[in-house]
Structures are given as C-alpha cells and as structure tokens.
C-alpha cells in the first residue's frame, strides 16, 4: 500500500501492513528477475527491489522502490 493511502487508514495494523509490503516486494522482485521479463527497467527494478529486501524491515512501499529504480 502506498504511503499516501496508508495515511488514510490510521487504525490499520502497522505490523501486518509491513509484512504485506515485504511480501509484495519479494513477489515483484521474483517477477523482475524472470528471464522472460519484458517490462521496461527490468534489471534496474530487480536490483532496487533486492536492495530494499536486503535492507530489512520496515519495508518501503512498492511505489517508493520503483521510483528509486527510475520506473514511472
């Protein structure tokens, strides 16, 4: 969930949200490292996703990671 959306739900379970963000990052990282990935900026996104995962929790939202990779 992007930060802007998360702010709209102040009562959401923060620990669950963080766990879900980590899971989403792992799933998208696996897709971006697929040899058949044809989306733009695939390897840059893959590297940035792995860096975010290696950084550990709290996990950044996917939109933040993709912006760091230069993916619109």
The level of helicity is: 55-70%
CA-based shape: elongated
Oligomer: single chain
Distance between the termini: 17 Å
What is the topology?
Layout: H1 3-6, H2 14-32, H3 42-55, H4 62-68
Structural summary, described in words:
- By secondary structure, the protein is mostly helical.
- 61% of the residues lie in helices and 0% in strands.
- The chain has helices at residues 3-6, 14-32, 42-55, 62-68.
- Helix 2 (14-32) runs antiparallel to helix 3 and helix 3 packs across helix 4.
- The longest helix has 19 residues, at 14-32.
- The protein is elongated and about 40 Å long.
- The mean pLDDT is 93.
Keywords:
4 helices; 72 residues; elongated; mainly alpha
In short:
Helices cover 61% and strands 0% of the residues.
């Amino acid at each position: 969930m992007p930060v802007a959306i998360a702010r709209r739900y102040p009562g959401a379970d923060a620990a669950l949200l963080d766990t879900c963000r980590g899971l989403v990052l792992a799933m998208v990282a696996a897709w971006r490292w697929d040899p058949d990935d044809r989306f733009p900026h695939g390897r840059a996104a893959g590297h940035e996703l792995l860096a975010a995962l290696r950084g550990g929790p709290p996990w950044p939202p996917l939109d933040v990671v993709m912006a760091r990779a230069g993916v619109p």
